[in-house]
Amino acid sequence: MREEDWKSLARTRLRVFEEELHTAHEAGMTSYSGQRSWSFLNGIVYALTVVTTIGYGHLYPTTLTGKVITIVYALIGIPLFLIVLTDFGKLFTRCIKFLWSFVRRLYYTGSCRNVRKTAHVQIIIVGLKLQCCASGLHTIKT
Description:
This protein has four helices and no strands. 1% of the residues are buried. By secondary structure, the chain is an all-alpha fold. It has helices at 3-26, 40-51, 64-109, 118-135. It folds into two domains: 1-36; 38-117, Helix Hairpins (Orthogonal Bundle). One of its GO terms (cellular component) is plasma membrane. Its main location: membrane. Residues 35-93 form the Potassium channel domain. The chain crosses the membrane at residues 38-56, 68-88.
């Protein structure tokens, strides 16, 4: 094949591809798979990316109404999401504290039962005995 014929064929095929691409774009197909980009699941993904402020940008509204609704949704949704995120953080902290106390209890006692704090009670009784002996009272029996 001569070079001029090859260039002519390449231009023709490129022009046909450009026309097909333009037609698909006007029909609303913006993904590589040939499907419309707005489905129910893609709408959920878009809503989550707006609220979490991730903003991937692969889905976006093209109409003015869609853009305005997105702004209102973001103004309400982002603060609510931050409140929920704070609550999840508190819950996560409680879980970690519980796990840490369980691990410490298991490490120090060798079992999962609570550690009995009888040493403090014994120290108090010894202190009371010493006070009673110093004051002359010998009636406390243990």
